[in-house]
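Duplicate of #3305? Posting structure anyway:
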């Protein structure tokens, strides 16, 4: 009986470049490593240096980075970072994925991408290149509700946001959600 050659599993984990979203993805990467999977943790050049200096990454975790397109001293506000990641970051990500389709330095080709759900370009590019991909949302249920409630906040005219006032029009978040 002939058996097909086994292909080593290699997952590329790509979180959104914010600490609260990096940490859960690092936990996922560590769990995958513990299961014997090859893992590459991809991040922005700006954040990767901060991650590496904050604590030693797990052994066998391969760290790679791409530029986010913003200067080092930029405050990286959400919308500016998103725009830059969708242009500069996505082009660098595509090039990196193309190069990762070939084995190198005892590292098998990337066989799957797990990207943060806030970066649809990451799964789109992977799938365009024939790499299975999934979006993994690491933010809390409260954050999800807050994001989904933003149209209602605008509809109620509760913007622009004055400092630390409560948002009153979002069901279930009264007394919790603040501007």
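Output from current build:
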């Amino acid at each position: 009986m002939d058996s097909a050659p086994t292909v080593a599993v290699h997952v590329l984990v790509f979180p959104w470049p914010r600490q609260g979203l990096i940490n859960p993805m690092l936990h996922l990467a560590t769990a995958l490593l513990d299961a014997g999977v090859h893992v590459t943790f991809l991040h922005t050049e700006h954040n990767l240096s901060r991650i590496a200096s904050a604590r030693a990454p797990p052994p066998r975790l391969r760290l790679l980075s791409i530029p986010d397109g913003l200067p080092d001293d930029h405050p990286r506000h959400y919308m500016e970072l998103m725009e830059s990641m969708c242009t500069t970051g996505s082009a660098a990500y595509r090039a990196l994925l193309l190069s990762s389709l070939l084995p190198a330095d005892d590292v098998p080709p990337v066989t799957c991408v797990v990207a943060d759900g806030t970066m649809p370009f990451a799964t789109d590019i992977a799938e365009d290149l024939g790499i299975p991909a999934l979006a993994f949302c690491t933010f809390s249920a409260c954050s999800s509700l807050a994001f989904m409630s933003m149209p209602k906040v605008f509809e109620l005219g509760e913007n622009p946001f004055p400092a630390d006032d409560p948002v009153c029009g979002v069901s279930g978040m009264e007394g919790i959600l603040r501007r």
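Confirmed duplicate; merging threads. Residues 78-100 form the longest helix (23 residues). The chain has five helices and five strands.
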